[in-house]
Design a protein that fits this description.
352 residues, Aldehyde Oxidoreductase, domain 4, 2 domains, four-stranded mixed beta sheet, 8 helices
Length: 352
């Protein structure tokens, strides 16, 4: 963002008669909420989630997760994690959720926990299936388990690529040739795993923005908006950035636009979307985003929950920027949302 240079630019704008301000907000976002959190808080409930992972006889991977997505991209993220864990192309992974007749019991999507618990449960199940796959390969290839590697859809002996079996070949043995499996091993390649995350993970971030306010109309514009976010290891940076953009837009909507207004007679004057101002793409500034990946040591792959922090950071950064813009004039907006009318009233009040 270049804070010092931005302050000089703001001061130059003020000297030229503009109303400009800079706002900074740094937050820590507790999230994920494992069972230990509920116990310590005296709240009934659980924080675990579960997944079922199966390698089909074709070598394709199918999974059922308990978490249901409302647009967060859980199916894509879990598919990526499984593709990496089982060394198969993502096109051969199918993840389903929301079917109560098939999906395992889970505790739902809330508290920025979906990515951590769904991927954590799926990866746990995948590790069980992977280990069984390697045991079958070790038996059939007559090789020590420690000498095997799972690469590009096949299990092979390290240093001897010709000594290998594809995942599909091993899966067909697992399902259709039980007498060729290691003694005592049950047929099939399927596992269910429940994952209970740590009591909390902590994401964090900083939002910084510049605002300009029209001295006559009170209309506010945001010439620049920068975000730095740490949500641990990012499984899918595009999904992370999309959630961050959406959450920040929600925060800006609440800070600048959204308000339930009542008439003197108690009638709701903003009961429809014709009257209740919602954030739209045309009203949003471009977001400059930088990511810092500090893995959490207590979750698979170092993941942390994320997304709600975008709301927290945006609301506070805009508030600080408006306060900074109005302070030299002796004005204060009082409260959110900082609509053009509220800002214009504040400016007129300061001129009296």
């Amino acid at each position: 963002f270049g804070y010092e240079e931005a302050r000089r630019s703001r001061d130059d704008a003020r000297a030229a008669g503009q109303i400009a301000g800079i706002g900074v907000a740094t937050y820590i976002e507790p999230n994920t909420y494992g069972s230990e959190f509920y116990k310590s808080a005296g709240i009934a409930g659980s924080g675990h989630d579960a997944a079922i992972v199966r390698i089909e006889p074709s070598g394709a991977v199918s999974a059922q997760i308990g978490v249901v997505s409302q647009g967060q991209g859980h199916l894509t993220t879990v598919a990526q994690a499984l593709a990496d864990a089982l060394a198969v192309p993502i096109e051969k992974v199918r993840v389903q959720s929301g079917d109560t007749a098939a999906a395992p019991y889970g505790m739902g999507t809330r508290g920025s926990r979906g990515g951590v618990v769904s991927a954590g449960a799926a990866l746990g199940a995948a590790r069980i299936v992977r280990q069984k796959l390697l045991r079958i390969a070790a038996y059939l290839l007559e090789a020590p388990l420690d000498d095997l590697e799972l690469v590009d859809g096949a299990v092979r002996v390290r240093g001897t690529p010709a000594s290998s079996l594809t995942i599909a070949q091993l899966a067909q043995k697992a399902y259709f040739a039980p007498t060729e499996l290691p003694p005592g091993m049950e047929p099939g390649l399927e596992a269910t795993h429940a994952f209970d995350p740590p009591a909390l993970t902590f994401s964090s971030g900083t939002h910084i923005c510049r605002v300009e306010i029209d001295p006559e109309t009170g209309a506010l514009t945001i010439p620049r908006y920068t975000i730095v976010e740490d949500c641990g290891r990012m499984l899918n940076p595009r999904v992370v950035e999309g959630q961050l953009h959406g959450a920040t837009a929600q925060g800006l909507g609440g800070a600048l636009l959204e308000e339930v207004v009542y008439g003197a007679d108690g009638q709701n004057l903003s009961a429809t979307l014709l009257d209740y101002a919602m954030p739209t793409a045309a009203l949003m500034p471009p977001f400059e985003v930088e990511h810092i990946e500090r893995p959490d040591p207590n979750t698979p792959l170092g993941m942390k929950g994320m997304a709600e922090g975008g709301v927290m950071g945006a609301s506070a950064a805009i508030s600080n920027a408006v306060a900074d813009a109005l302070a030299p004039l002796g004005a204060a907006a009082g409260r959110q949302p900082f609509t053009a009318r509220r800002l214009a009233d504040a400016l007129r009040g300061a001129r009296r």
